[in-house]
Amino acid sequence: MLKTDVHNLGHTRSCLRADHFLQTPDTFVRAPLPGMKAASAIVHTGPANGARFTEYTAEMQPGGRLAPTHLQRFLYVLDGNIAADEDALGPGDFAYVPQGMTKEVTATTAARLVLIEKQFSGRASPKSFVGCEAQITSQPLMGDAALRVRSLVPNDPEFDFAVNTMTFDPGATLSQVEMHVMEHGLLMLQGQGIYRLGDCWYPVAAGDFIYMAPFCLQWFGALGKSQTKYLIYKDWNRHPDVR
Ligand code: UGY
Ligand code: MN
What we know:
- This protein is mainly β.
- The chain has no helices and 20 strands.
- The chain has strands spanning 15-16, 20-23, 37-45, 54-65, 72-79, 82-84, 87-89, 93-97, 105-107, 111-118, 129-132, 139-141, 144-151, 161-168, 184-190, 192-197, 200-205, 209-212, 218-223, 228-235.
- An eight-stranded antiparallel sheet has the order 1-2-18-15-20-14-13-12, with no helix packed on it. Strands 3-4-10-5-8-11 form a six-stranded antiparallel sheet, with no helix packed on it. Strands 7-6-9 form a three-stranded antiparallel sheet, with no helix packed on it.
- It is globular, with a radius of gyration of 18 Å.
- The N and C termini lie far apart (55 Å).
- It binds (2S)-amino(carbamoylamino)ethanoic acid (UGY) and manganese (II) ion (MN).
- Residues 166, 174, 178, 184, 218, 220, 232, 234 line the site of (2S)-amino(carbamoylamino)ethanoic acid.
């Protein structure tokens, strides 16, 4: 058999456009962020591509630590176990740390977590919280029981962003093509489907990350025989004047 050291002849599903991008795991590049210990980051999006938030996956060795941040921080555990100060968190658990508060985040086993960090644009800083996705009651989106949304950040105007999981039964779709002022960071957690972004339709699957700029046309349809789920960030409770 012919052996080659080229990687898919340079082919990938990753793609960068003016109002969106798709970042697939074959193109992830890992590097520690300043202050991280025994951990590295895959940066998905941030000010470098015009986003008003930063999102990255942290891959931590046992005993590894996240860098402190001066921003508000939301984290969601993908795999493994961590301690956020006194709270022990496992897969599907999440935590919010307001701007100005420090929480030491340490991996108690090898762990992967996704982090969202952004400058707080509200008035009074919300309080910290931890939660467990499975314990959040889901709501059908636009009355469609085949598409269920769980809001991980309380629906309270003091928060200036939202993070939701959206679970699609096989064949479920967004009920409309959306075009809105909010930007999105989206991590595919399980399953697969077709994402329309701008004028392109992409096959996407668990592990992929998508960034959508404000007003990016978007639509999703789930494919396959099992559920599809993604974790999605959006700016929320903000006047469009606030950047
Ligand atoms: O919350 C949202 O805007 C969500 N429905 N968007 C999306 O799934 N692309
Ligand atoms: Mn949307």
